[in-house]
Design goal:
The protein is mainly beta and about 650 residues long. Helices cover about 5% and strands about 50% of the residues. The strands form seven sheets. It has a 22-stranded antiparallel beta barrel. A hairpin with a 7-residue loop joins strand 3 and strand 4.
Length: about 650
């Protein structure tokens, strides 16, 4: 019922807003710069959307909105597969997830350390704003013909008079899952307002973001031998699971304000160079809670073993109320579109104040950082983006981050994208201390982790081939051992990642391939698959007098055998396990997708491989991916 209410609301908004649209604000001529891509779709049908968007971390970079094609970003309803090739979760849509391709941490100042739902959340500063002249709205829905297994997404952007734009972004996951006690309820909602003064000298952005994750924790299935013996069973919902009364909830509310004032004089002699003073305010309330109402009290068989601090039930809770202020000075050059040149240079300071509640005690934490950004588009071919910050207060003194991205686009010859990253950051709260049922589980004094990354991608002309290599060097790496306790690895860890993409077509036949190979040396503290790949083979073309575009084919995934981590809900972390490895895994889906103008439909039959093998596909130890199922979905963009 909620879906149809929002769906009808968006249609009404489209027709209601379609009249008397105000012109684009003065001085805000839309740029026509496309977002860099990691791969090429040869001779792909051009997107019908004429919309550009940008993010608040750099108002000078505009990306072309491309979301009306029949690509996997449309029909991969699972957010962890929507443009993110190798994200591993706990077997169910919306379940805790992590990246199976090693990715360096990203933090500045205090961090509670609970990131198992990050891929489903939409934070305030991630909300895009748009360059558009007509209202834009879009709605998408997918499901299993049941109210217990649905997803819904809606977007709305609209310019009003007097330089005002309203942007809404809504995501909802309601999934009961394939196994007992696996229900997930996620809601991510962002509402943004942009105001530009008449002379374009003052810009104000105000965003409210709400992200809530609520799920049942079953601790995984107790045994997978039924898969190997019979292969057929009445219902996976009858499988015994390890936990009967556990649940997790994470709730994040954010109020974000960003404002810039341009000091330049508006005249004909100096119309491109801006001199900006800026301020950002972020007020955030976050809490993380786990509860177990019926724990097994036998320490030899209990899932919780060393953590049976209260036999009547277990609880982990922490909350963080924070106020963050940033003050910046910046200069930007916005030349004419045909010049293909722009720049953004910014210096600033950031102060954070946190009040952390662990139930047994409250702690006030302050951080103070200096930072700088430099974005330079030298020409249509060469772009450089760099960032740095340095901690100046308390235990965060000496934390730093240096990052640089270089892009060289040579058109038909090819493209090079380079990356350098070097950073040092204080451990997270959960790595330093944790309380269970008001009793201390651990207190640590770890050294600060340091990571260095060097790498890049090379695109070979229009061949559809992209080759990539990244080298990561980790020092003082912190991980969670098989007992769920954080440990620090003294040895240096090196990770070398090779990747390759090849997309080609012959007439209506298409074949897309992506492979990653990542050997890990120096330590066993990081356990990830060495080899992973995604493959798609399909035909795509127009039917019914070229009115309908259709795609039909198969998507496959491959993952090498590895000693996968186990998800422990009490800590809210992926921890090591030494029981066994998940086997070499393959997954196969059938896909049919169709498009008529801006309306799209898909039909997916997932898990076809279970017809031919008794083995299940795992990304997390003890949590098999759901069995074969049929899912349908629609997506409709209403912008004119």
């Amino acid at each position: 019922m909620k879906f149809w209410f929002v769906f009808i609301f968006l249609i009404i908004c489209q027709f209601g807003f379609g009249q008397n649209n105000p012109p684009t604000p003065v001085g805000k001529e839309p740029e026509k710069e496309e977002k860099p891509s990691d791969f090429i779709l040869l001779e792909e049908e051009p997107d019908t959307a004429k919309i550009f968007y940008y993010y608040l971390n750099n108002l000078n970079v505009k990306y072309k909105f491309e979301d009306t094609l029949l690509n996997p970003i449309f029909y991969q309803y699972d957010i962890t597969r929507k443009g993110k090739e190798f994200i591993g979760h706990c077997g169910n849509l919306g379940s805790p997830a992590r990246n199976l391709v090693y990715t360096p941490f990203n933090r500045m100042g205090f961090d509670a350390g609970f990131h198992q739902f990050d891929y489903y959340f939409s934070r305030a500063q991630d909300l895009p704003f748009y360059d558009l002249t007509n209202p834009y709205s879009q709605a998408a829905h997918s499901g299993l013909m049941s109210k217990y297994n649905t997803t819904f997404d809606a977007k709305l952007a609209r310019n009003f008079a007097k330089g005002i734009q309203i942007t809404l972004d809504y995501h909802r996951i309601n999934n009961r899952g394939d196994y007992n006690r696996q229900s997930v309820f996620h809601t991510a909602f962002n509402a943004g307002l942009k105001y530009t003064s008449k002379n374009s000298k003052y810009n104000l952005f105000v965003i409210y973001a709400s992200n809530v994750a609520s799920l049942q924790d079953n601790g995984g299935i107790t045994s997978d031998t039924v898969f190997n013996t019979t292969g057929n069973f009445s219902s996976s919902l009858t499988f015994p699971v390890k936990l009967a009364g556990a649940s997790t909830r994470q709730d994040i509310k954010e109020f974000f304000l960003q404002q810039y004032f341009d000091l330049r004089k508006i005249d004909s002699s100096n119309n491109n160079r801006s001199y900006l003073i800026g301020h950002q305010l972020l007020i955030k309330r976050e809490y993380n809670r786990f509860s177990e109402t019926t724990p097994d009290t036998n320490s030899s068989t209990s899932f919780y073993k060393d953590y049976l601090y209260n036999l009547r039930g277990l609880r982990r809770y922490n909350s963080d109320f924070s106020v963050e202020n940033k003050f910046t000075i910046a200069t930007a050059n916005r030349t004419k579109i045909e010049d293909n040149k722009s720049d953004w240079f910014e210096l600033g300071v950031q102060h954070q104040w946190h009040l952390v509640d662990l139930e047994v005690k409250d702690t006030a934490i302050q951080t103070f950082f200096a930072f700088g950004k430099w974005y330079k588009k030298f020409s249509k071919q060469i772009t450089l983006e760099s960032y740095a910050h340095f901690g100046l207060l308390n235990s965060y003194f000496g934390d730093y981050k240096l990052k640089g991205n270089l892009n060289i686009d040579l058109g038909n010859i090819g493209k090079f994208e380079g990356l350098f990253l070097h950073q040092r950051a204080a451990p997270t709260l959960i790595q330093q201390q944790m309380y269970i049922s008001n009793k201390n589980a651990w207190i640590n004094d770890f050294n600060k982790p340091i990571t260095t990354t060097l790498g890049g991608n090379i695109t070979l002309g229009r061949s559809g081939i992209v080759l990539g290599m990244n080298y990561h060097l980790l020092n003082n790496h912190i991980y969670f051992d098989e007992k769920g306790k954080p440990q620090q690895e003294n040895a240096a860890i090196s990770i070398l990642q090779f990747s390759g993409k090849l997309n080609w077509k012959w007439g209506i036949f298409h074949n897309d391939n992506y492979i990653v190979y990542q050997p890990i040396g120096g330590s066993d503290a990081i356990r990830l698959p060495n080899l992973m790949s995604n493959h798609s083979i399909y035909v795509e073309g127009k039917l019914f007098k070229k009115v309908l575009t259709a795609r039909i084919g198969f998507d496959g995934r491959f993952q090498s055998e590895f000693k996968a981590d186990f998800y422990h809900p009490l800590m809210g972390q992926f921890i090591q396990q030494n029981i066994g490895s998940v086997p070499l895994g393959t997954s196969l889906d059938f896909v049919f997708a169709a498009k008529v103008k801006t309306f799209r439909f898909f039909f997916k039959y997932e898990g076809i491989q279970t017809y031919f093998t008794n083995k299940r596909f795992y990304q997390t130890y003890g949590y098999p991916i759901f069995d074969k199922l049929i899912r349908t979905g629609i997506d409709w963009k209403f912008s004119k």
